[in-house]
Design brief:
There is one protein chain. The protein is α+β, with helices and mostly antiparallel strands. The chain has 16 helices and 12 strands. A hairpin with a 2-residue loop joins strand 5 and strand 6. Helix 12 packs antiparallel against helix 13 and helix 14 packs antiparallel against helix 15.
Length: 444
């Protein structure tokens, strides 16, 4: 546990939508959603879109009528633009303090110990300065939540977004205990960071319905009945810092237990060759994430399915698992395993709408393991002897090239070149900030 320090969470309001509005001011005040990679569902919504009843993750086909009925604007996700705008926003926020932890594309924690005296204002006033500068320099509206722990800062940020009288900044550290208790009583337990849909119903069953109820719960009881992580949330709500989001170089990072890469296709696929290419692409992405967290996979599963929304299509769904012996993080071995697995479940005549690869039985890559036929030895099966003596170095080089020159710069031939299955966004806005040919033009 570390010493409590005032910390602010600054995040962009409806970040993807706000990025689009920076370059298209005519969208201000209009209901706007940003759609997922395959234009399949809403992954960002403005307040005006939420007022229409649009839910996060709601399929596009269910809300498309609102284009005509309510003037809804829907845009394809422009992740290149959002990443660049995020870099700009985080750089501005970083000017307000030396200890900044970027948590996600639109969220940043900033420690504020000592800044109030330097700035000549309260912490809430300092938060208003941050909001004003980000809006002026980047164009992104933000909200700021301030607390003595990460969880308190998250809670304060939630309150700042929900209640207009806070003017975008909520500082829990300045509240008397009675006022803080009243505020926490009004926050649903499901809105507390770390609770979510998994624990909220069970907590309500035992009489914990608000953030205040959770803060007053016994951490030992919570750890036994729910989880140690949720017990830490209880302590954080009470002002005891016991969660780290990346600032402590010695903090343990918990790797994923499974890694999934999947996508719906831009059109139904009928040929096994197209599915093979798509699964190779998904396997490559999963393998890259596997190496990024320092793991090897001992098994994988693939799935293929038709669309449940097209009544004219024959319903079909199949999945198959296979062991990876020995466990590996080599993209080539993983892709080869997906190809073998696909041959066992592919059925001709099906219009396939989605497929995916999941890696599981993950283990640390630095844990030694013995192989009957080490890489490069003549007896190794599947021709592995011809694939080089240091697959780890090859994969490291592959990741480095793709990190420097862009994802997909170097890939296996099995993933295909044309990739006709890949989605072509129909509502994609220009790369306003990263492509000279697509820079916005100001007209008099």
């Amino acid at each position: 546990m570390s010493r409590p320090r005032p910390v602010a969470l600054i995040d962009g309001n409806s970040f993807y939508c706000s990025c689009e509005r920076v370059f298209r001011p005519a969208l201000l005040g209009r209901p706007l959603v940003v759609l997922s990679n395959n234009d399949g569902c809403a992954i960002a919504r403005t307040a005006e879109a939420k007022a229409l009843g649009i839910k996060m993750g709601q399929p596009w086909f269910e809300i498309r009528r609102l284009e005509r009925e309510a003037g809804l604007v829907a845009l394809s996700a422009n992740f290149e633009l959002y990443a660049d705008m995020s870099d700009r926003m985080m750089a501005v926020i970083g000017q307000f303090g030396p200890d900044q932890h970027i948590y996600s594309i639109d969220e940043s924690f900033l420690f504020l110990d000592g800044v109030a005296g330097r700035s000549g204002s309260s912490l809430a006033g300092y938060g208003q300065q941050i909001r004003a500068r980000v809006l002026q320099w980047v164009g992104i509206p933000t909200c700021v939540g301030i607390g003595m722990t990460y969880t308190q800062a998250k809670l304060a940020n939630h309150v700042a977004k929900q209640r207009q009288h806070w003017a975008g900044v909520c500082d829990l550290t300045a509240m008397p205990p009675g006022a803080l208790a009243t505020l926490m009583r009004e926050v649903d337990v499901g809105d507390v960071w770390g609770v979510g849909r998994r624990f909220a119903p069970r907590l309500r069953e035992v009489g914990i319905a608000s953030a205040l109820d959770l803060a007053r719960a016994d951490p030992v009881m919570i750890a036994g009945a729910f989880s140690v992580v949720l017990a830490r949330t209880v302590r954080e709500l009470c002002g005891t810092s016991c969660i780290d989001v990346g600032g402590d170089a010695n903090a343990e990072t918990i790797p994923r237990k499974q890694i999934l890469s999947s996508r719906s296709f831009s059109r139904p696929l009928l040929e096994q060759g197209e599915l093979t290419e798509a699964l190779a692409e998904f396997a490559e992405r999963a393998a890259q994430r596997l190496r990024a967290q320092g793991s090897r996979a001992g098994a994988l599963q693939i799935f293929i399915r038709s669309s449940p929304f097209r009544q004219q299509d024959k319903p079909f769904s199949a999945a198959i698992s296979t062991r990876l012996i020995p466990a590996t993080q080599d993209t080539r071995e993983i892709v080869r395993a997906t190809q073998r697995a696909l041959r066992g479940i592919f059925r001709p005549g099906i219009r396939y709408a989605k497929a995916g690869v999941m890696l599981y039985d993950l283990q640390a890559a630095d844990v030694g393991q013995l192989e009957l036929f080490p890489v490069g030895e003549p007896g190794r099966p599947d021709g592995a002897a011809s694939r080089g003596r240091d697959p780890a170095a090859l994969m490291q080089t592959l990741d480095a090239l793709n990190a420097r020159f862009g994802r997909g710069t170097v890939k296996l031939a099995g993933a295909g070149l044309e990739q006709g299955w890949r989605h072509r966004p129909e509502r994609l806005t220009p790369a306003y900030t990263t492509d000279w040919a697509q820079l916005p033009i100001a007209r008099a």
